[in-house]
Design a protein that fits this description.
This protein has 430 residues and is of the alpha/beta class. The chain has helices at residues 12-20, 38-49, 60-66, 79-98, 104-120, 133-145, 156-168, 187-206, 223-230, 286-297, 302-305, 310-319, 324-340, 348-363, 368-379, 389-396, and strands spanning 27-31, 54-59, 210-215, 243-247, 264-267, 400-403, 409-412. This is Type II secretory pathway, ATPase PulE/Tfp pilus assembly pathway, ATPase PilB.
Amino acid sequence: MEWRALRTHSPAKKMLETLDRPFGTPRILLTGTVGTGKTTELMHVADERENRELVVFLDLEWHFTNVVKDPNALYRIQAWEVCFLAGLALVFRFKERLGLELDPDMVKQLGEAWQRLAEATKTPNPQFDLGSFAKEALELGATLATSGALGLETSGAFKAARAAAAAVRSWTLPLGRSEKPLPDQDRQVQDLLGAVNLLLGEVQQKHRKVLLVIDGLDRIRDLPRAKALFVESQLLSQLSCPLVVCGPFALRHDVATAGVRGFGASALVNEPVLDHDDPSRPGEGVAFFRELYAQRVKDLGDEALGLVGPELLGELAYRSGGRARDFVRFIRSLAEVAWDQDAAAATPELVKQVLDEWRLRQETGLNTEHIRLLQDVMKDPEHRLPPGEVALKLLDYQHLLPYPNDSEWYYPHPLLTMHLVRPPPAGSAG
């Protein structure tokens, strides 16, 4: 898509190569901190495969926030619930893309399996009308697919229209509310997996191959919950189709999870806007953000390209820490401040004002223990990840950021190094 800038360290190319292999069933687990642009990478993969496969794209974070209206329930979701949602989305996507409806009896089996499993896990109010479940599955699947935009569907108007349609159909099924976990080998769990795989098999044998793309599970910061989905359970890897899942970044930093079974690992770290040997200097990743800005304002004409000069774009890119989300926020804030002050273009003073506002937000909640650990990372010539829960928490909340090199390296968010987190003096005990 034209608004995308090409990443130096994009995992999309490798994922597409994996999906192109004519043997096996590829399953890819993409990890990375929130805000690095993983959704953009997933959309790239989905767009490239759309004409070859039936792409089913689930954005679980969007769905739980805007349809279920309980974003915290996503943090408690079970693997069998993810499989169930994938089945619903497949039912709708099949009708939307191919104009056909799946066998109602097969769809009903999915509803029966979910109802039995919901009761077995003590999920509240797991009742619905099985007699009309085939129709209900289409409606529920439509709310899931609202965020699964592909191709032209990524336009704001199209997504807004589908969001409005989803609002008409309120979500009634309880999610993330089960009180009793069940192992993969439990009969009810296997029945639900079998019901989803039956639908996948029907589509792939009689019509076309399915690619399932699941976004949003990266929002889960709690390591035990991440392990429950990908280490203690292999349910997602047993779905019988190619699969790309955006998973919790916590999985990359626990020894027990180094070999998550059933998935090939892929990672998206922050663009290297810092130089590894001297992080006070800009790195090669700054060029990506200049290109990203140019792509995003291209439709506004040549004048828009000059509203933020190259040096100021470089400063914003550096202070973003290589996080696409932060860079976009900076540009938006800069536009607002420039509008308020009737400025014709960005100035160093306006950029400083914007960065100071975001710096204060980034500093919120940090204590002396956090600061000492961040300083220790700065002192380490290799900038390695320290052990312990504090380091993982700083990673979770983007105070400590990962970067690519021969191996990953880490550094405090550059907003923090503006004032609060400075390298300790030479010879200091830290």
